[in-house]
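Thread: "does anyone have the structure for this chain?"

Original post by V.I.:
We have the sequence but no experimental structure in hand. Need at least a predicted one for the grant figures.
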Amino acid sequence: MKHRPAQLAALTAALVVSTFSSAEPRAGSWIDISAPIDPKTTPVYPGNTPVKLDFALNYDKGDKLALSSYTLGAHTGTHVDAPMHFIKGGAPVDLVTLDRFVGPARVIDCTADAKIIDAAELNKHDWKGARRIIFRTRNSRNHWMTDPTFHEDFTYVAPDAAQLLADAGVELVGIDYLSMEKYESSDFKTHLILLGKGIPIVEGLQLADVTPGNYDLIVLPLRVVGHEGAPARAILKRRSGGTSD
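Reply from O.Q.:
Generated one for you, tokens below.
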């Protein structure tokens, strides 16, 4: 199902309402699944830019307004990997169509102790027919997206599962830690399989309070021109009737 411009505008407007109406994780029926960006709680993948949030102007210093300065990497917190991240000549984040990021999605609650989402683990769940797949794993159960310590043993997606998703025509895949790839992978097959098919990856989702099932999803990465990734705000709303399309 293609989203008409009016439908896309309505969904985008809902994100704006969600963002500004409340500081709580839930605003109305929308669930904010974005990890907070805070140097005290945000994990950083080794080698990435540390998070630094400053005030250039501050009321506490006698200034008449607040004015902030942020230093952070493109892959900080909840973020999008565009094809350019691992595919030479692939689309940068600003050129990935918004249709990929807005629409029906299915949250899959992986086996509690699963450290690898391989084909066997994937096929334990009802994933076929879903256009967008979001994996809830032990990463969320351990609240690792609000733990500043980087956990090398995070649950990841194995290449055989990535291949099944790509072959099925899935439009987006998300996971609840800073990478979908095994830590210190030398071949990056999971990223290459998904991004090679033009499938954007959403990493760093916060899914501790999310139950499995079918949702409407909105993910809006920052419109950073010509680069491979960007931080994003992501929200879910349960679909009525349990439908996935």
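V.I.: this helps a lot. The chain has a mean pLDDT of 91.
O.Q.: and The domain at 5-48+74-242 is CATH 3.50.30.50 (Glucose Oxidase; domain 1).
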